[in-house]
Amino acid sequence: MKSNLLAMALTVAMVAPSKAADEVIAAASQPPAVTNQLSLDDLVNEALANNPELNFYRAEIAAARGGRRTAAAWANPEVSAELGQKRVKDSSGTQLGEGAAWSVSVNQTFEYPGRLSLRKAIANRDLQLAELGFAQFKLALASRVRTLGYQVFIAQEKLAASREVAGRFQALTDVLVQRDPAGITPLLETRIIEANTITLQRQASEASLAAQAAVLELNQLRGQPPGAAIHVTAAPFKFHEVPPLESLLEIARTNAFELRIRQAELEQQGFKVALAKNDRYPAATVGPFISQEKAADKETIVGVGISVPLPLWNRNSGNIEIARAREQQAQTSLLLAQRDVERRVTESALALQVKVAEMNQWRADAVAQFTEAAEHADRHYRLGAVPVATYVELQKQYLEAIAAMLDTRQEALVAAQNLALLTGVSLLADMPRNLPATKPEDSHD
Q1: How far apart are CA 127 and CA 437, in angstroms?
Q2: What is the tens place of the pLDDT at every residue in 175-229?
């Protein structure tokens, strides 16, 4: 009878700490209550509506439109007037009369033919560049916000997993230190558990800092206070099939913002070369005039005047050479940008293909099975059915597997985002295939 009572007492003593440990684990694995839950699309929409840097690009477009109006305007006419006194004397010096003399003229400068249209074309390219910059920034902003949002989601998931495993180790440590270790093996196992508890707590702290850093930048892009707390919800991404590389390269040559901007700059520089050549020819100033003199008699003159500078010393050859040199630089920049875009498209396409192929090999319930295995290992280690090496290794592998899967998804997302920036084609299944922001209106001529 006494032996039965003793066995029951030992069983209760072992089960009670185990139940307490399970409660600690459950409490540690519960995420904090967060009311501000946002999806990735919510974050993107908020950033596109509130990002303060968008006003800079809007002002740049407004300035370019003002420059276009200025380039299309004629020079204002000039009015000149002269007023004086006239005396008339004969050859002997006798004054014949005295009176007022005045003249008024209105002059209008007329540019050499073609000069005004060239200035308008240059101003139109400025407006085109401003609109391209605005569209590029919006697409890059959406891509960056989506990436940062997913980083926050990943950090939250890693933090939850690290806290879950750290909670298991901490609860197990609390149970082991209360026991009197009989022999060196239990003592060493206790130290192994304690050491891993410290390591896992550090991993949880690093995940928390990573989440906070991403939240700070995300709040800055959304125009929110730095300390605004958010909780990101994200479903696993699904990707369209990656098109052939040649198709992506051909699309990028047409849609890539870098190439479109360099192409517009090259066209603009060509107009500047033509304008520099046109400036070799002078502008003519034409206008009517009237003058009147009253002395011995009244004399009135009405006519039309014209003035043209003689291009003897300055044929604008220096500005022509400068414009041609700038045009050559623009051609080189376009060629270098095209090679860089082709390289980045190739890298991103290959990376996305590799990551998608890797994700397709995962089992649909892989995370659930890893979580279940970690829980089984914890339960059976307490019962003595699993050695400490297997228990520790399984908990570590659980965290590493979760981190590897999350990181792979993020890398695939980054590759797909880069392709979208370079080609204007989205490979995310939950987004429109063609991104409208990549083609701003361009009818300014």
Answers
A1: 16
A2: 776 666 666 777 787 788 888 888 888 888 888 888 888 899 999 999 889 888 8
DSSP states of 300-358 as a string?
Answer: EEEEEEEE----SS---HHHHHHHHHHHHHHHHHHHHHHHHHHHHHHHHHHHHHHHHHH
Neighbours of 106 (CB within 10 A): 15
Gap between the Cα atoms of 132 and 128, Å rounded? 6
| Among 208, 169, 219, 205, residue whose Cα is nearest residue 190 | 169
* CA Rg value for the chain: 39
Residues 134, 60 contacting (CB under 8 angstroms): yes
Q: How confident is the model at residue 393 (pLDDT cuts 50, 70, 90)?
A: confident
Contacts of 53 (CB under 8 A, 6+ apart): 137, 141
pLDDT at 157 over 50: yes
Q: CA-to-CA distance for 210 and 162, rounded, in angstroms? A: 13
Query: Who has greater pLDDT, 257 or 295?
Result: 257
Classify residue 246 as left (phi > 0), alpha (psi -120 to 50) or beta. alpha
The reported pLDDT for the residue numbered 1 is 39
pLDDT in tens, 414-440: 999 999 999 988 888 766 666 554 444
| Per-residue tokens: 344 | 């980045």
CA dist 220 and 287 (Å) reads 59
Which stretches within 178-256 are classed as H helix?
184-222, 245-255
Pairwise CA distance, residues 229 & 37, whole Å:
9
pLDDT in tens, 333-355: 999 999 999 999 999 999 999 99
CA atoms within 13 A on the CB side of 414: 14
Q: Could you identify the residue written with the tokens 């090999």?
A: 361
Instruction: Indicate the CATH number for domain 18-75+111-280+315-438.
Output: 1.20.1600.10
Could you give the count of Cα atoms lying within 13 Å of 391 in the half-sphere of its Cβ?
A: 24
